[in-house]
């Protein structure tokens, strides 16, 4: 399953947050009409993410435990074309050891698939902490434990010198200088309050269309396509999880380290 939130903050059209993720995912869904996948692929465009993950929470909590168990993995795309971008990949294995811990078992493998994609393009990545701040939150929640992964090109965080060495752009400025502001717009960034000098500087280093970084959008759309088509045919890298009813039955058996579940 793959999803992106379709809503934005009320005072902005939200062309990066999150028309970028919604449009990237929609294009992949349209292209998927050309293939007959082995596995079922479900696409979701969530409502009311910005009002505290309302749509995705409703969806996940209204699945039966059996239906939840049938979702092998969930991919999330929330902000994939930030003007002053980084290539952030959700830190499924918590290798950065920052903020929240790792995702459910299998999340590390999803992170690896995305990292391999960027490596194949000669592009570096950053670990994006699994904060639960987007629609994957209800999927990875305790008791649900669906492996998850996804992309994030940065919001209100500040680009560092190390980031500039990897991705270019402007040090000391937000990854998305118009995050949750009216200037997160496709046409009138400066007219809607964007910092004219900063956007002029960004445009001297990157190709921007409004508040969209077209290189980040193009690359990340390919990353989404790679992940969706890979898992549409083969989820064998994702360790199986036991259904809730079956999980109870195994409690009586020999206790194994949770990490053993990664080994197949
Ligand atoms: Zn968002």
Report on this model:
- The chain is α/β, with parallel strands linked by helices and 264 residues long.
- The protein has one domain: Zn peptidases (Aminopeptidase).
- The strands form 2 sheets. It has a 6-stranded mixed β-sheet with strand order 2-1-3-6-4-5, with helices on both faces.
- Strand 4, helix 4 and strand 5 form a beta-alpha-beta unit.
- Helix 1 packs across helix 8.
- It is globular, with a radius of gyration of 19 Å.
- Bound molecules: zinc ion.
- The site of zinc ion has 6 residues, from helix 1.
- It holds the Pfam family Peptidase_M28.
- This is M28 family peptidase.
Instruction: Please give the CATH architecture.
Output: 3-Layer(aba) Sandwich
- Just give the CATH class: Alpha Beta
Structural class: alpha/beta
What CATH calls the topology is: Aminopeptidase
Bound molecules: zinc ion
User: H/E element string?
Assistant: EHEHHEEHEHEHHEEHH
Major sheet: order of its strands?
2-1-3-6-4-5
Characterize the overall form: globular
> Which radius of gyration do the C-alpha atoms yield?
19 Å
Number of helices: 9
What percent of the residues sit in helical stretches (DSSP H or I)?
25-40%
* Uncertain regions spanning at least 5 consecutive residues: 245-264
Number of domains: 1
Alpha-carbon distance between the termini? Answer: 23 Å
> What is the number of E strands?
8
The profile of the biggest β sheet is: 6 strands, mixed
CATH superfamily: Zn peptidases
Strand content: 5-15%
Q: Give the rounded overall mean pLDDT.
A: 91
Biased composition (Low complexity): 244-256
InterPro entries: M28_fam, Peptidase_M28
Protein name: M28 family peptidase
Region (Disordered): 244-264
């Amino acid at each position: 399953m793959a999803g992106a939130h379709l809503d934005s903050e009320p005072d902005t059209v939200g062309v990066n947050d999150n028309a970028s993720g919604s449009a990237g995912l929609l294009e992949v869904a349209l292209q998927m009409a050309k293939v007959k996948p082995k596995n079922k692929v479900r696409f979701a465009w969530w409502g009311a993410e910005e009002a505290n993950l309302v749509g995705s929470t409703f969806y996940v909590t209204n699945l039966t435990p059996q239906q939840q168990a049938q979702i092998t993995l969930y991919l999330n795309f929330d902000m994939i074309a930030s003007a002053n971008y980084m290539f952030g990949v959700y830190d499924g294995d918590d290798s950065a050891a920052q903020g929240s811990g790792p995702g459910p078992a299998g999340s590390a493998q999803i992170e690896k698939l995305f990292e391999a994609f960027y490596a194949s393009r000669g592009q570096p990545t950053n670990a994006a902490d699994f904060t639960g701040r987007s629609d994957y939150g209800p999927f990875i929640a305790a008791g649900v434990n669906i492996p998850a992964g996804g992309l994030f090109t940065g919001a209100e965080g500040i680009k560092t010198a190390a980031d500039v060495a990897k991705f270019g752009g402007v040090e000391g400025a937000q990854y998305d200088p118009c995050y949750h502001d009216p200037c997160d717009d496709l046409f009138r960034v400066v007219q809607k309050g964007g910092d004219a000098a900063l956007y002029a500087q960004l445009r001297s280093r990157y190709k921007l269309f409004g508040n969209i970084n077209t290189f980040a959008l193009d690359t990340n759309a390919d990353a989404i396509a790679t992940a969706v088509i890979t898992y549409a045919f083969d989820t064998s890298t994702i360790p199986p999880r036991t259904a809730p009813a079956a999980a109870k039955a195994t409690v009586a058996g020999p206790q194994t380290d949770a990490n053993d579940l990664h080994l197949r």
